[in-house]
Amino acid sequence: MQSSKGRRKVGSTAAGAGIDSAEKLDELLISSAICNGEDLGPFVRKTFGTGKPETLLHHLKFFARSKESEIEEVCKAHYQDFIHAVDDLKSLLSDVESLKSALSDSNSKLQSVAAPLLSSLDSLVEAQTVSKNVDLAIGAVTHCVRVMELVSRANQHLQSGNFYMALKCVDSIESDFMDKTPSSTLKRMLENRIPAIRSYVERKVNKEFGDWLVEIRVVSRNLGQLAIGEASAARQREEELRIKQRQAEEQSRLSLRDCVYALNEEEDDEFGSGPDSSDAGSSGGGLLGFDLTPLYRAYHIHQTLSLEDSFKKYYFDNRDLQLTSDFQVSTMTPFLESHQTFFAQIAGFFIVEDRVLRTGGGLISKQQVESLWDTAVIKMCTVLEDQFSRMQTANHLLLIKDYVSLLGVSLRRYGYAVDSLLEVLSKHRDKYHELLLSDCRKQITEALSADKFEQMLMKKEYEYSMNVLSFQLQTSDIVPAFPYIAPFSTTVPDCCRIVRSFIEDSVSFMSHGGQLDFYDVVKKYLDRLLGDVLDEALLKLINSSVHGVSQAMQVAANMAVFERACDFFFRHAAQLSGVPLRMAERGRRHFPLTKSQNAAEDTLSGMLKKKIDGFMTLIENVNWTSDDIPQGGNEYMNEVLIYLETLVSTAQQILPAKVLKRVLRDVLAHISEKIVGTLCGDLVKRLSMAAIKGLDMDIQLLDSFTENLTPLLTDKEAREMKKAFIEIRQMINLLLSSHPENFVNPVIRERSYNALDYRKVATVSEKFRDPSDSIFGTFGTRGSRQNPKNKSLDALIKRLKDVS
């Protein structure tokens, strides 16, 4: 305060001095800047800028001297205050001493009073420490007891095989009690035994899993056989249903309106065979149930042991090895005997894997199962290709194909793609049918070689049903009386059975193979069987083994029955292929046994012609220049007619009408050709009118014979039959006509003599010229008028010679 007053005093003095000079002003400014703590740089620069630093030094020194007095005054003021304080402390010293003595007395009293309390406090603290130690000991014992209880429980679970609960106990000990266990001995024991327990559990579970791997192979084989067996049973039920449907369609086609049809719906199989037929991991669960408990237990234990990924890999590797071993085909056993076990093992394997995929909780992935399946498909295709290439028996191929198709049906239910397997089966379609055709060729050859060319005798109705009705060979719906003699020999039903078996085997191979519309394929091979195999075999039989008319007639009758049988074959193939009959009949081709049918009829006709030729040799006995007309026809014609009548009466019982008509027409045409040939031949030198009239009577007998076939022929057919000997009829008509030269008239010739050859007419007309024109015949007729008919005949001969 005094300093502030001093500063005001200095300021007032300077102001009072009234110094107005510049130096005083600079001094004041410097003093003000120093007092205010301002920067003196501007003043220094200004001073040096004016070149008068001495003025600045002077001002600074003056400021310092002015402050010394002020400092001195401040120090004096502070010294006085210090002296006063020391005096105050001296006055307080006596009070302090009195307070010290009072405090000492109070402390002595306090010490005397607090000594018993302190001893009691020490006892209390000691008791509290002991209590705390006891509590800690009790807690440690309790902790150890709980640990030992868990250890005991874990041991019990291990002894009972409840490994999961044992591991849970071990995990609880390790996570909740291990770090807190006060006993170092117990802790060391736990640290040693816990890994051993886990290792023990892992070994036991792996052993159980290994046993399951061994057991599941047997289970898989049985499982595959069962699944394929169910597929076969289902297929059989479907086939039975189709048979009933075909029977209903056939009866409907025959318009049996009195029949009532009812389709019985069969109950579903009480045992499931699909993917959802049984519960996961259970030993029951339907017909396809199997026990996955050891697998899932091992997987769960490895999850608990944090070894999930390693167990997944271990499982996949082992199953992959098992599948690889399943692919081994035994070389000691024929594949035909081992193929069911081979495919059943693979089918069971993938049924198990499908269950594991759906219920295993990620034990195996869909990609891994698909990878295994792809490997299996490639291997099975390779095995099938190899085995099919070695097989030379169609039935063996069919058996394996059927089983593979059943395998495909079984596994398709579980979502596996089987198209590659079906493609392999389809690929060997041609080979199978070639082998089947070869087998049928042998069977047909044996059946034909055993034929005795005798009509088949059936004594019982079941024989009729088996040999006639089963192939729809009957010509009437009326069941005949027994014993029944069929118009065909045993060759027909035997060959029909072979062809029907071929159709059924072909359809069996083509069906269930992924191809829905296979009728065209079956029909193609059926055409080959009938056209290439059966037709050729029949041709060979006809050309080598038929030696008599009765045998030829029987073969021709058989061919007519084969024609009806072929209709049945194509209908049967269409029905088995699921094709409507109207579509099959719409696409029917010509009779496939045409060559053998024509050969049979030609052979029969040829043999009959030989027989006829034998009778026609009697034509040599005819007196061609006789003036007497033979009564009742010539001898040769009577013999021919007797034979033809006998032939027709016999043939009507065997040959169909259309076949008999064709044969008779051929024979009659041959008779006509023989007569014309005789007339044109060297045997006949001259022809008399009586001989021509005798021939006319012979032809009339043929006409009568043809007309007497009325039960066999209609009037139109009888007229058509007479055209067989139209050549000899027109020749006789020409020779008996009044104007033979009309033959050269194109209009008349086309209308009445269109079957005649002008060269033959010229030859016969030359022989028919009236013998009175000869040298010896002119004596009795000299000078008489020439017969107009002879004149016309001479004109005809002349005209024909001119033409030739």
From TrEMBL:
The keyword DNA damage does not apply. Pfam families: EXOC6_Sec15_N, Sec15_C. The keyword Ubl conjugation does not apply. Residues 420-767 form the Exocyst complex subunit EXOC6/Sec15 C-terminal domain. It comes from the Eukaryota. Residues 59-228 form the Exocyst complex component EXOC6/Sec15 N-terminal domain. PANTHER family: EXOCYST COMPLEX COMPONENT SEC15B, SEC15. Belongs to the SEC15 family. Component of the exocyst complex involved in the docking of exocytic vesicles with fusion sites on the plasma membrane. This is Exocyst complex component. It comes from Camelina sativa (False flax).
